[in-house]
Sequence to fold (204 residues):
Amino acid sequence: MLAAMTPVSPRPRGRPRDPELDERVLAAAVAELADRGVAEFSLTSVAARAKAAKRSIYTRWPTREDLMLAGMSTLAAGLTPPRTGSLEQDMAILLDKVAAVFTEPRLTLLQRCVAEISQHPDLYAAFKRDSVDRCLAAVEDAVHDAAARGEIRTDIDRATVAEALVGITMLRGTFAQPTGSPVLTGHQRTEVIRLFLDGLRPRL
Fold:
């Protein structure tokens, strides 16, 4: 009697995707955008920076625009509502993550994209959606959850809170901080959170 044999799944064709290569290419794309901007963005230069074959890049991002957008989307990558159960803790986490957007090389990339990308409407729309709107949406969701818990007033305009919180961080990251210093110190972050919570909590 033949022993029962467990069916073996066929191996997928081609090489498995290399996440380390993806990270290197995206980091190289960010550096390329920060150094050269949208107009002079070069796939050849990205390949050299990442020490990757252009063919490998094309299999992942078929066009120059695809790779630029993928690099831009890393500005706010992983920025989601923390949902800790406390708006104070959510804001502390979100402030740190938003502040990370305004550190180098992301800050230079952001500044160059804002200056140049309006000449490329499709790129601009995707950049705004994947970078700016993602930051705002994460804060809005945190405010929504806090209102549902009864932690803050329900008449709060979530969009205004999100724009104000992100705006403070953007202002400090772009203009107010000395080179190499944190966007927000621990004390500044605490003061910003206290200011917002005082304005959002139910009035006595």
